[in-house]
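Minutes, structural biology subgroup

Action item carried over from last meeting: produce the structure token record for NEBU protein (Penelope pileata). EB confirmed the sequence was re-checked against the source entry. Recorded below for completeness.
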Amino acid sequence: YTEAWDADKTSIHVMPDTPTILLAKANAANVSHKLYIQAWEDAKKKGYDMRADAIPIRSAKASRDIASEYKYKEAHEKQKGHYVGCKTAKEDPKLSWAAKVMLLTNDRLYKKAYNDSKTHIHIPVDAMSVQAAKECQTLVSDVDYRHYLHQWTCLPDQNDVIHARKAYDLQSDNVYKSDLEWLRGIGWLAEGSVDVVKAKKAQELLNERLYRTRPEQLKFTSVTDAPDVVQAKINAMQLSDV
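Output recorded by EB:
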């Protein structure tokens, strides 16, 4: 019953020239960034066609020439009015004299020849000092002092290797004390055993606090009918005012 209706729901046909469809297409074209810059992209692909005698090119060249001539004559314009009347500085006696004084007082130029001569040192190869330095270097060289004979390897099942391992095990302190390390911490004695009671008695005998106990700390009671106590009571009754 509903098969025809379900088939009709899945087949929707919209006319492409409806006002709503046309308006949506126009809005999409208006907000499209690609279409907005399409003319600019097409112009960039065509390249530029600017002639050498174009007005902007001629204006730029003229501005460059004006700026170049101004920069070229800037130092000349600043020096106008400061000339001393000589064409060059060498013709001026004061300037030439100052230049000579500067050369005389320049310590770098004064020592230039000496510094250049220091860098040219020629020592013969067979000189006595060179030979002595080479021999000294050979004596103090660690490379020649530690001259290794050769590099060799031993197989693990050789007799000397097995014997060396056994000797190392006998001399090893870790192997020697391995049984002691295994037994450490596992010893235990009962509370009432002979060794424990003996240790407690020895501790009481060696206890300094129990050995030197003060008399006033001992617990004792005096006898009431001792002669000195009876005499003290009689004396107290005789001396009593009551």
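Discussion: The chain has a mean pLDDT of 80.
Next step: EB to file the record with the rest of the batch.
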